[in-house]
Amino acid sequence: MRIIQASSEHLDLLTPLFVRYREFYGELAFPEASRRFLEKRLRRKESVIYLALPDDDDHKLLGFCQLYPSYSSLSLKRVWILNDIFVAEDARRQLVADRLLQAAKKMAKETNAVRMRVSTKIDNDVAHKVYESIGFHEDSEFKSYVLPINSD
């Protein structure tokens, strides 16, 4: 398995799995809007996306993760937000998520980030175990809140 950083040339490969990820979380597919969204993030360098590919096939995507940059005013350093991670159904239990997270962790270290943050559903026990296995721990210092804006 190879982990590579996505570029605009990977949009045809990435978009279908990104659409399945959105559907997994109960969203409508919107393939064209999904592609435009990803294309903007990559073109504007607003996110970093890692792709997991089989060693012998450049046309099959096993999984992806997308991170957004943020900053900590208190530590005066960068923070990476792991916003999206998804593994294709037929690639599960092959440590794809682990490899993607290790690539993200390496990138965070290389960019001198103070931390990576991730949120997941409270009942997503599989994700909890994966995150904890690479060193994430539940935040006991801060409670998160959400303020929906224009969420029609």
Automatic annotation (TrEMBL):
Source organism superkingdom: Bacteria
Ranges for domain N-acetyltransferase: 1-152
Ranges in coiled-coil conformation: none
SUPFAM superfamilies referenced in this protein's UniProt entry, alphabetically: Acyl-CoA N-acyltransferases (Nat)
InterPro entries from the UniProt entry: Acyl_CoA_acyltransferase, Bact_Acetyltransf, GNAT_dom
Keywords: Acyltransferase, Transferase
PANTHER family in the record: AMINOALKYLPHOSPHONATE N-ACETYLTRANSFERASE-RELATED (PTHR43877:SF2), AMINOALKYLPHOSPHONATE N-ACETYLTRANSFERASE-RELATED-RELATED (PTHR43877)
Name of the protein in question: GNAT family N-acetyltransferase
